[in-house]
Amino acid sequence: MDLRKLNEIDINDLRDIDFADMAEWPVAGRLVLVGIIIVAVLVGGYFFLVQDQLENLERLEREETDLRSRFELRQERAANLDDYRDQLEEMRESFGTMLRQLPSEAEVESLLVDISETATASGLESELFEPQAEVERDFYAELPYRLRMRGSYHEFGQFADDVAKLPRIVTLHNIQIRPQDDGELEVEMIARTYRYLGDDDGGGS
């Protein structure tokens, strides 16, 4: 279409257009109609073709971003795999060390003797050594003992320090200290040792 002809359109020519007889339309009317048709085709083509392609492009860009994020995450995991393996090995070693510190059923009695001898060596006087009900956990059992002893503050501190150095795990809980008339202290506590539950006991590691 010659754009120069559009500049020559007289708006008055459009007023006499008979829409029932398009063949008799003036040139100006026909040019306007052609222009409207061209614009309609372009707009329709955009919405039916270009817009659809733009939406597909946006979808592909989102998928690319998602794939890139997944790739970077997997790459990071792969880079840290050796560190994870080292940490896992350290955890296994620590777990194995802890298990070795849990006495077997046969060793519990000798451990109780060790606790009693530790109290005596610290200068404490044992008044009560009473076993409590055993409590089973996932792979071990707690063996609590109620202890009551007399002595000085320094002697109790020495006892707690020596118990922590025993080759098997022993923990002290619910410590209650009561001053006595003779200047000594009476201490009551729960000492817990732990027994590993093997397959025969219904537990496991």
Polypeptide structure, described:
By secondary structure, the protein is an alpha+beta fold. The protein folds into two domains: 79 residues; 100 residues, Alpha-Beta Plaits. The chain is built from five helices and five strands; from the N terminus they run ααααβββαββ. Strands 1, 2, 3, 4 and 5 form a five-stranded antiparallel beta sheet that branches. A hairpin with a 3-residue loop joins β2 and β3. α4 packs antiparallel against α5. The longest helix is centred in the first third of the chain and has 53 residues. The chain is rod-shaped. The two termini are 87 Å apart. The mean pLDDT is 74.
Descriptive terms for the model:
transmembrane helix, Alpha-Beta Plaits, 205 residues, alpha+beta, Transl_elong_EF1B/ribsomal_bS6, single chain
Q: Topology, please?
A:
Blueprint: H1 3-7, H2 27-79, H3 81-100, H4 105-121, E1 125-131, E2 135-136, E3 140-151, H5 153-164, E4 170-179, E5 185-196
Antiparallel strand pairs: 1-3, 2-3, 3-5, 4-5
Helix pairs in contact: 4-5
Strand percentage lies at 15-25%
What would you give as the CATH superfamily of the largest domain? Ribosomal protein S6/Translation elongation factor EF1B
The protein's oligomeric status is single chain
CATH topology of the largest domain: Alpha-Beta Plaits
Low-pLDDT runs: none
- Output the number of helix runs: 5
Gross CATH architecture of the largest domain: 2-Layer Sandwich
How many independent structural domains? Answer: 2
Characterize the main sheet: 5 strands, antiparallel
Over all CA atoms, what is the radius of gyration?
45 Å
Number of strands: 5
Quickly give the structural class. alpha+beta
| CATH top level class name of the largest domain | Alpha Beta
Q: What distance separates the N and C termini?
A: 87 Å
Shape, per Cα inertia axes: rod-shaped
